Amino acid sequence: MDLELKGKRALITGSSMGIGEEIARTLAAEGVIVTIHGRNAERVKRITQSIHDAGGKAVPLIADLEPSGAGWRVAQEARDKLGGVDILVNNAPGFAMPGWFTPPPEEWQRAYRINVVAAVELIHALVPAMREARFGRIIQISSNVSTRPLADLAAYGASKAAMNHLTASLALELADTGVTVNTVSPGLIQTESMQSNLFAMGVHRGWGTTWEQVKTHLVKEYFPTPQGRIGEPRDVARAVAFLASPLASYIHGAMLRVDGGSALAVP
Description:
The structure is a single chain. By secondary structure, the chain is an alpha/beta fold. It folds into two domains: 9-187 and 232-257, 3-Layer(aba) Sandwich (Rossmann fold), CATH 3.40.50.720; 189-230, no CATH class. The chain has eight helices and seven strands. It has a seven-stranded parallel sheet with strand order 3-2-1-4-5-6-7, sandwiched between helices. Helix 5 (154-173) links the parallel strand 5 (136-141) and strand 6 (179-186). Helix 1 (18-29) packs across helix 8 (233-244) and helix 3 runs parallel beside helix 4. The protein is globular and about 55 Å long.
C-alpha cells in the first residue's frame, strides 16, 4: 500500500535510538525526508548516514530538549534544514528515576519539561505553517502508564498523562484545519533503554537473573499483556506511519494503543 508520504518532511524528536529511530527509518522508507534528532552527535550522524545508505533522505539535528526554549530552537533548525515541517512526532522521552519518593521534585520537573513543555513549544512553532498549508500531522508518543498508574513510573506517567490532555485539547482547537492530532500509546516495547531499566528492576524484585526470566514476569504479572510478548519498535513505527499519511485524514483526536492488549487486562 502506498501511504502517499513521498516528499513530506518530518521532525521526529528523540529519533537517534529506540522507538524514535525506528519511526524515522520507517518514514524514510516511505519517501519522507526525516530529521534524526538527539543529544549524542555520533549516534545522530551514524543513523543519518545509515538512512542515506538505504536510499532515504535524512538530516541531523543535535540538540537537548530540556533547556527552556529548546523546542522553539529545534523547530527553527528543522525548518531551516527541511524547508518546512509537515509531520511532527513528539517522541523524545522525558524519563525520571523510578519510584514515587525516590526522584526529587526536580526529576518530576525534568520529565514534564521534555514530555509536555518542549512539545508545546514545538507545536506553537510549527502549527501556523501547517494550518496555512491545510495539511499537517502531529503525533504524540505517550505510554500506557499515562492511563494505568504505576508507582515505579510515577513522574514519567504523570507527564505522559498531561501529554494526553494537551493532545485532546489541541485536536479540538485544530478541528477542520487539515491538521490532525493523535496519540500513539505503546505498552511494553523492547528497546535498549527499556530492557536495561526493567531488567535491573526485575532483578531487584527477585524475578530472576536473566532477561528471559524477568520478561516472563513483566508480561504476566507486572504489566499483564494478553498477547504474552513484548512489542518491538517497528510495531509503534508502523502505527505512526499510517497516522502520518493522508490516508488517515479522518482519524483525529484518537489514542491508538500499541500494547498487545494490555489495556484490556486492567481490572
